[in-house]
Amino acid sequence: MAEAQNPANGEWARSPRIRILGRNDRGDAFFSPDMALGLQLYFVKTGDVAAARKWLTWMHEHVACSVELFNKCLVRALPRFCTNDEKDKGCTMRPGDAAQLSATVSYLQQKYGLQDLPDGRLRGYLGTFSGYGQAIVDIDAHVNDAGFPMHLVGVSVMLMRMMGQTDPRIAAAAATLARREPRNAFFRYLNEGKTRAVIGLTIEKCPELDRQPTPPLIQWQWERAEADRAWEHSSYWDCIFMAHLLR
After folding, report:
1. What is the residue extent of each domain of the chain?
2. How many CB atoms neighbour CB 106 within 10 A?
3. Which residues does 92 contact at the CB level (< 8 Å), separation at least 6?
4. CA distances in angstroms from 101 to 19, 44, 213, 238, listed in the order given
5. Cα–Cα dist 43/50, whole Å
6. If DSSP codes are grouped into helix, strand and coil, which group holds residue 209?
7. pLDDT tens digits, residue range 194-232?
8. pTM of the model as a whole
């Protein structure tokens, strides 16, 4: 994770390889709001405030200008997580992203002494949505499409719990995810913890010597709808992830 950050300016890339290349040669995003959730899990787990500070400073310094007059910016755009993918597609920080990042920044400040953000568009935007994360995940758990959009809600639930949040709307979101996709072991874990049912479901969906997945092995099955049968192409990392949660 840490190797994907540009040591010179603090920008984060999708992977160390893409950071070195300066672009994503496979056509996907250089970085994205969704990847920022994983990055926040890293910060909360490790307390790497030096890297967090550099990353936040980079975002602060790279807020685009929406309205410019006589070479002076009159109106700043919304903060972004990246700038160099095609037409800035997928980089813009959405309200839910801002709510989660605001909570993460506050947590890092209180627990690890992260410095205050500099005055500017990023700090103001995070402040606008501060405290709305629990309500947003509760709503998104009901309305997000099955698959990747629901998985993002699950990751948000995990992040908030790692930061010690206990708002009942977080538990409600986890229950909704498990109800909508009852055979998703990750969602079931978020809702009920380390139960025999969750362990059994994980084992059922993960490779064994006599039940190997079919190449290409590219899927993270917990971010796919049950109908996609993504476990048949498991990357194995999805199963290693669940093993760490359940050990």
Report:
1. 1-20+28-130
2. 15
3. 33, 77, 78, 79, 80, 81
4. 22, 11, 36, 24
5. 10
6. coil
7. 999 999 999 999 988 777 888 999 999 999 999 999 999
8. 0.92
